Amino acid sequence: MRVLFSIVIFSLAVIFGFAGYTRFGLPLIIPAPPPQEAKISGEMTMDQFIALGKTVYEGKGTCTLCHNSLGRAPLLEQVAQVAPERLADARYKGEAKSVEEYIHESMVKPSAYVVAGFGKKGTNDTVSPMPDVSGGAINLNAAEMAAVIAFLQDVGGVEVTAQIPTGEAAAPAAEGAAPAPAPAADAKEALVKFGCNTCHMHPLIAEGGDMGPDLAQVAATAGKRKPGMSAEQFIVESIIDPNATLAKGFEPDMMPPDFAQQMTVAEMNMIVAAILNKDAAGGKPQ
Amino acid sequence: MNFLIRFLSEAPRVALAAAVAAIIGLAAAGGGEPLAWLTQEAWADESAAVEEKAPEAGQAVEGATAAAESEKAAADQPAGWAPMAAPKLETKDYPIVSGFNSRLSAWFAAQLHLFFAAFVLGVPIFVWVIELIGLLSKDVRYDHMAHEFMKVSMTGFSLAASFGGLLAFMLIIFYPDFMKYMASVFGDVMILYALLFFAESFFVYTYYYGWDRMDSGGLKWLHLGLGLGLNMAGMALMVLSNSWASFMMAPSGLGPDGAFLGDVWAAIKGPLWNPLNLHRFIANIAYGGSLTAAYAAFKFLTAANDQERAHYDWMGYTSFIIAIAGLLPLPFAGYWLTKEVYDYSQQMGITLMGGVFAWLFILQAVLIGAIFLSANYYLWCSLGRAEASRRLYAMIQPLGIIIVVAFLIWFTPHTLIMSSWELTQVGGAHHPVLGALGVMAAKNTAVNILIIATFLSYQMFRRANIAPAGSGFWATHGTTVQAAVYAAALINIVALGIYSYFIPANVRIGLSVPQVSTTAVTLIVCTIMDNLIYRDQRALGVFRWGHMPVRSQYALFMLAVSFTWLMGLMGYCRSAIRQHWHVYTVFRDNSLDAYTPTLPFAALMVTIIVMIFMALVFFMFWMPILASKKKEGGAH
Amino acid sequence: MKMLKPVLVVLTGYLLLKFGIPFIGSQLHPGTWPVVPTSVMKMYMFFLIVGTLMIYSFSEEGYAAVIQPAVNLYVDPARGTARMAVILAVGALGAYVTYQYVKPTFDAPVELRSIHPAPPSSVKACVKTYQLQGLKNPFREDKASFAKHVEEGGVVYFQNCYFCHGDRMLGKGPYYDGFNPLPANFVDVGTIAQLTESFVFWRIATGGPGLPSEGTPWVSAMPVWHELLTEEQVWKVIMFLYDYTGHSPRVTAPVHH
């Protein structure tokens, strides 16, 4: 038993020695959190877009892991300047016509032109070791690649031709396919999402318009507007078929008729509940 | 199941696969219709060739064959079926079980499973070799020792399986979508894997319980056959499960969206599979040796009489030699694995060596150094068994100094942590002396010298009690020639090391090859010379097994504990370099725990896991003692 | 007295690490005394002691010689005073180590500082934005007036830079020892000799405050010179730096080789 005890103490001392050395003897490096996808909106200025390109270039794109002064891959600061020479080079195998296209092609088909000395070993500079940045671990979307192109053009001192994707184009670019917009989380969000506040006023929204009836007043009267219809039913009908019952003093065809297609059931319920001042799922009590 | 065929055709190229193929053949003969597969395959290949389908474009595709395979695989499926693309998960897709952290639970189960699995895969390899040695040399002691090794590891089999089951459940509970995806790729491999456990169980029980019955003549050879079967089954289990781990690090056989193309063999044989197989195979042997050495050390310390002490000393020594024999080539298998990681993805390679994990390798260097130091200490203590060894004591001091200096160089970090005062003294972050020691050129040199010096310690023990008796050239001048070989090797390694400072980095990497070759050649040549020198030998004095100090046995514990902890640490490293990916670049981990834990946190986890493991190892080693006690009680 | 041998070995090792390595370093980099950093020294000493104990304790006699004095000290009734002294010394050592560990200090936290951090792509200086990559010294081309430009740079140097960087450019001007990090030594091959002129321009123009986060936590005291000098003056002083030290600026390899 005494032997066993000694062995246990000895072993514990050894492993705690290792753990202690790790904790106190080595510098603590906190790994970076997993990267987020960059958000691109149409309101960006070109400067912001170039800055985004720089962030992607140094961050998510991981370009600087290899394109740095250690000589793993060519430096890219002048790539926009030398692109025309590359395109004229006999070894060029791609289809790009402009600087922008050339840089884009280099990102998705790196082997189209391999800078001498940087090819995969044994391929005589015909195959590039670089991955396709639009897939794999890097997985840049079209907008992010455009930002990187803008950044490289800016750094290279040539005219920036890469376009900022507009809001409509950027959203699909973010996932590579057209995703449904995220459903609203609560009534307030839903009211804003469908633009109710453009025309209506409601206590949940700070500023509302006066082109439609004040929604704060609807709760009191909705149940009595149409015989045989509850307040909920009336509001739902008014949302999906706005012209069915018009409030006094308001014009027909002002409200979009397609909310039935746009809203999820949950969103509709939240809005109805909010108009009725009820605390429905996700709705905030008054 | 078409990968089996590729498996077989690959066999000549992959040394390990030969073993696997045999057992798969066995398993297949028992459970299926191999001929039917063959004919089906032949037909499928033919039809693919005739149709000449254009391959789908995609980087992960290995070429036309793979695409054709995928067409064929799709044709086998019901209409409308398509292989599962890598899912894009959100945090809410990961189940939460209150009180359990998903990653930590899986981590615990996986690491404990791997500890026991490595042990029970490693032990039968050398048990079988020792049994064979016993049979060929007709020395019954080897046979008894092999039997005892088997006895102490029996509980390990069920513990390994239990933790494997726990791991499977943890993965299904916490990562159901991941498991679903993995099953979509490796479904048939997983089924085969599960079935192989029947083979493994069959062989392990017949091998162990049949030991005494099948102890002579043809039956003994049959018994050896069972042992071979056990090793084959174990090896097949290992390489199959390795394929999942290597697939997660470096996926292959997938289309651009991560959907499986239908060729399991392409998915199995990813770029990291064979390096991982080799690394784990060698490490399992070393690990099995170090744990059985710890068992022998415990029995040695609690031995009742000299005879028992002698037996367990001998057993501990044998285990120790096995552990060291596995340990010496391990760094090179590790280099191969790392090189393949770099070749597969430079990004992953830089994350591994230059990024967050850079300090982990300093820690690894310290641990391996600790293992080397305790190994040498045990060998030096071993001199005490021989009365005539005193003449060699004078050699230990210079040898020890070489080992310590090589070790200090080996763990000198490339980036130094300095206080501001030290920075002003040094005149910058680059230290003119230590900076030169922190680079690969110095480390390679140091580790080669460390290995040669350890071998010298071993050689010293080998000749502790003997002297050459003949009068031939080797007997009289052999040692001088050997010394010259060692000196030449040392000069060559150091000169190459110094030379590599003056050449560009890409050439420098290539220089480690001649260094390693020098070491390997030196070890082999000197072993051969030893045999020539001591062809005729005479004993110089009494040699007493069991004449070992208590502290030498603690060196064995040190070895086992360090080895276990190191394994846990490198397990974290191997898994963590995938970063926020389930399957690297294909299937993103979006769970709450997708971040990379810090090194101290990982060290704490490893420490806790190792403590649990140690407790279970005591239990495992206690089982045979418990059993033998009952037997003794019955005899009274 | 056999115990003295291991003590001597450890002591020799310690002295070699403490003075031998800095000595070699000072021969390689004159003017510095590159001590072994404490973090590394601790590990070296730990394994040096462990290794020495191993070398001297593997044999029974060796072990006895190493352990006997300690055993005697703790069991011999005649050595009560020595025993108490050792126990007190061990306690005092623990107290000292603890004190060193917890006492407040003005040292910057130990972090891995990058001496030459990656430069930004562009620099805003002298109300202009410079793209650093490909930025050239405008006076380099003008071979005819080379001497004149260098001389003008020298004037700028001695009116502004000399106080810290010194007359011989060794980083040892009259005020040098008041700074942390130390003023750069331009003669050393590790500074301007391995940098491009555009990098040097960036470092002079934006000074310590312009360093990126890798250059922290010890932000250099270098002033933001573009607020005090003109663009021409900065370029001329760079000419002077290279001419005086005999180094030539690093040239970035063109992107196409």
Describe this entry's structure for a reader.
The complex is a heterotrimer of chains A (286), B (636) and C (257). Chain A is an all-alpha fold. Chain A has helices spanning 2-25, 46-58, 79-88, 99-108, 142-156, 167-175, 187-193, 218-225, 231-240, 259-262, 265-275. Mean pLDDT of chain A is 76; it is low at 168-180 and 280-286. Chain B has 22 helices and 4 strands. Chain B has helices at residues 3-10, 15-31, 34-51, 64-76, 102-137, 140-174, 176-209, 217-249, 264-268, 273-301, 306-327, 330-344, 346-353, 358-382, 393-410, 420-426, 434-437, 440-462, 473-499, 505-533, 550-576, 599-635, and strands at 466-468, 537-539, 581-583, 587-588. In chain B, the strands form 2 sheets. Chain B has a two-stranded antiparallel sheet with strand order 1-2. Chain B has a two-stranded antiparallel sheet with strand order 3-4. In chain B, a hairpin with a 3-residue loop joins strand 3 and strand 4 (587-588). In chain B, helix 10 (273-301) packs antiparallel against helix 11 (306-327), helix 14 (358-382) packs antiparallel against helix 15 and helix 15 packs antiparallel against helix 18. Chain C is mainly α and 257 residues long. In chain C, helix 1 (4-28) runs antiparallel to helix 2 and helix 6 crosses helix 7 (231-245). Chain C has 2 domains: 4-102, no CATH class; 122-245, Orthogonal Bundle (Cytochrome Bc1 Complex, Chain D, domain 2), CATH 1.10.760.10. Chain C contains 7 helices and 2 strands; from the N terminus they run H-H-H-H-E-E-H-H-H. Chain C has helices at 4-28, 38-57, 60-75, 80-102, 146-165, 197-206, 231-245; strands at residues 122-125, 128-131. Chain C has a two-stranded antiparallel sheet. Chain B binds chain C through residues 366, 369, 373, 376-377, 380-381, 383-384, 393, 396-397, 400-401, 403-404, 407-408, 411-413, 415-434, 549, 551, and chain C through 21-22, 24-25, 28-29, 31-40, 43-44, 47-48, 50-52, 54-55, 57-60, 63, 107-108, 110, 112-115, 180-182, 185, 188, 190, 218.
Fill in the keyword field for this structure.
heterotrimer; A: 286 residues; mainly alpha; 2 domains; 11 helices; disordered C terminus; C: 257 residues; Cytochrome Bc1 Complex, Chain D, domain 2; two-stranded antiparallel sheet; 7 helices; 2 strands; elongated
